[in-house]
Specification:
single chain, signal
């Protein structure tokens, strides 16, 4: 009986240590520098439309994984990445819904935020009902330009035509 208990304990410890060693690989899934993110909005095109692009230096475009002329649709992701100086950059991604699962269609840096050198304190979607089936996006980025100040709200709006507007929120 004691031998069986020692064997079971050894097996459990071996399994636990293997799991503990695998845990750091999970950290690579989302970098620690991503401090806020929201997925919201909806987009679709006939497969021939260009991906969201505003700033050629910040855009990373991924080719249409399903071929030209294929109807595509998906949602937007808005996220903030903390920089070494504690300020943040804000990025917008188009996420395509494919048969193989979600795929990044494009990523752009929203230069309006980079120019402010903000301390991002939150990002919120228009509502928490999930992805909507109306084209566009509306989200609010809360930020400070001075670490001691109160945060201000800035809206990110993408209309049904894909035009992106970033403005200070008004009540």
């Amino acid at each position: 009986m004691a031998m069986r208990r020692i064997l079971m304990t050894s097996l459990l410890l071996a399994a636990w240590s293997a799991t503990a060693e695998a845990a750091p690989a999970q950290d690579a899934l989302l970098p620690a520098s991503v401090i806020f993110a929201t997925s919201t909005g909806y987009w679709e095109d006939d497969g021939n439309a260009p991906d969201v692009e505003r700033a050629p230096t910040g855009a990373e475009s991924v080719a249409n994984p399903e071929g030209e002329g294929t109807q595509r649709h998906g949602y937007y992701k808005l996220f903030a990445v903390r920089q070494p100086d504690r300020t943040s950059k804000v990025y917008l991604q188009q996420i395509a819904q494919t048969e193989a699962g979600p795929a990044i269609a494009s990523t752009i840096e929203l230069q309006e935020f980079t120019d402010l050198k903000p301390y991002v304190t939150d990002i919120r979607p228009e509502n928490s009902n999930g992805i909507i089936k109306q084209s566009g996006l509306f989200a609010t980025v809360y930020l400070k330009t001075d670490p001691a100040a109160e945060p201000d709200g800035w809206t990110v709006l993408i209309d049904e035509f894909g035009d992106i507007t970033v403005d200070k929120a008004t009540n």
